[in-house]
Amino acid sequence: MDDADGNLLYDGGKRCTIFVVDFGEHMFTNGQQAFRTALEAVRNQISYMCCSGDLNEMAGVIFINTSNTNKEAENIDCMYVHRSLGTLDAEYVKELDSLLKADDMVAKLAPTLGESGTCNWAEVLFLCQRLFTYSGSVIRKKAIMFFTLNHDPIASDEKICYVEDLRAKDTQLAVFLLDNLDEPTDPFWAELDPYASQSSSIDQLQTEIKRKNYSLRATTSIPFNLGNGLEFAVGVYYLIKEQSKPTAVPLDSETNERLEYRTHYVAENNGTAKADTPAETKEEESEHFEGEVKFSRNVGGLV
Fold first, then answer.
1. Inter-axis angle of helices 90-101 and 105-113, to 10 degrees?
2. How far apart are CA 41 and CA 29, in angstroms?
3. What's the rounded Cα separation, in Å, for the pair 145 and 174?
4. What burial class does residue 151 get, using C-beta atoms within 10 Å of its C-beta: 0-12 exposed, 13-18 middle, 19+ buried?
5. How many other CB atoms are there within 10 angstroms of residue 10's CB atom?
């Protein structure tokens, strides 16, 4: 293999992360601290991606619950794609830094995002799915990180369809709630992420992101070249908890198809006790009408 083809050796597909930041009114009930914490966490993650120098790392930023929209967001109401899915650079990190340094972040973002609005979370999941689908790249790892408060965002069951669809496409969903740890988590967040975390400070949030990133991001990759142009790479991940051996799956020895089990439950004393007790048998027969008893005796021509 020559040097020109060497750049393709480790390319097993892109790793894409979409950061979804809530811009709703509930994010500003106690000032702008919750929104600032979320934006700072996103800034730190993007800075880390830029410093890693991995060209296979792609990311995008979406603000939801806005009053403005744009064509990158498919003109869906109350959603604004602030950064399209692609390779990020230091210029975007500087742009986020300028927002974080502003005394009034809402006023600085108002010309772009408008005021706070109310989005449909089913459409949020739909938009993320479309961004992955039409990214123009082969994606081998997809992750969506939500930064919001612990509230009831949607009452419709339509969201369940998109959640299951995203999971069927091997999309990792991570929810980071910027709330007090003592507050119970809304059931909706458990549907997105069974391990949704709550954080009340940037330090706690960074710790939770780092913990979840171990399962979302490969530490390194091992390339394999099997010859004749057959090449692939295997990702290596940190093992952060003990893994048990998966349950064995029975297969047919000839067709190699998965076997199906069918179980029937029968009561222990059903029929046997009555057959062994003549008194109970006579008592049971006496309950039938005479015609029914005579029919049962003569059915089939047998007495």
1. 120
2. 20
3. 5
4. middle
5. 16
From the list 237, 169, 223, the residue with the least C-alpha distance to 11 is 223
Q: How far apart are CA 256 and CA 76, in angstroms?
A: 47
Asked if residues 76 and 130 have their Cβ atoms less than 8 Å apart, the reply is no
Query: 23, 64 in Cβ contact below 8 A?
Result: yes
Token pair belonging to 96: 């986020």
Q: Report d(CA 180, CA 189) in Å as an integer.
A: 15
Q: How many residues does the chain have?
A: 303
Nearest CA to 185 out of 150, 160, 212 is that of 150
Share of the chain above pLDDT 70, in %: 72
Amino acid letter for position 168: A
3-class SS of residue 229: coil
Residues whose CB is less than 8 angstroms from the CB of residue 111 and which lie 6 or more positions away in sequence, other chains included = none
DSSP 75: T
Using left for φ > 0, alpha for ψ between -120 and 50, and beta otherwise, residue 228 falls in left
Task: Report the pLDDT value the prediction gives residue 157, as an integer from 0 to 100.
Answer: 56
Question: 160-190: per-residue pLDDT in tens?
Answer: 677 777 776 778 888 899 876 666 777 778 7
- The three-class DSSP label of residue 106 is helix
Residue 118 and residue 155: Cα distance in Å, rounded?
13
**Cβ proximity of 127 and 73 under 8 Å:** yes
| Model confidence pLDDT, tens digit, residues 190-231 | 778 888 888 878 888 888 887 777 655 566 778 888 888 888
- The residues, ordered by sequence, that sit 6+ positions from 104 with a Cβ below 8 Å of its Cβ are 32
